Amino acid sequence: MTASDNEKRTEGWRTVELPENLVVEVEQLMKEKHEKRPVQVALGLFIGDLIRDSLKRAEVQEKYFSILEDYAVEPECIYIRDNNRDVIAELRFKDGTDLYCNIDGAKNCVHVGFAWSLPAVQKLLWDKSKNLNS
Ligand SMILES: [Zn+2]
User: 68-94 pLDDT, tens per residue?
Assistant: First the structure.
């Protein structure tokens, strides 16, 4: 491949280089997500959607970072630092994958909502629900 091949452009698109192992990982994810769909999505569009999601998430986290922070994520307990109330909420699993907040005595407070948005927590929940179903 020559340099000019790399420079080839489609109107409205830019070419970026990605580490090969990352692309393989994304292709795997795309395969899992789109397995049952009849129409194939272009890899570039799929990656674009992923990036847009994480940009949106970063923007939200930036906005709320000063109020809520993920303090620690452990297999049985998630700690969320609440700078507004100056406390650390302890969220524990109840009834399978539901999270229960000790300071609000609730399953649907801001801390639980925030915890759900954390990728580390989503992975934890995913692993837990897999274990429950097997
Ligand atoms: Zn709470």
Answer: 888 899 989 999 999 889 999 999 998
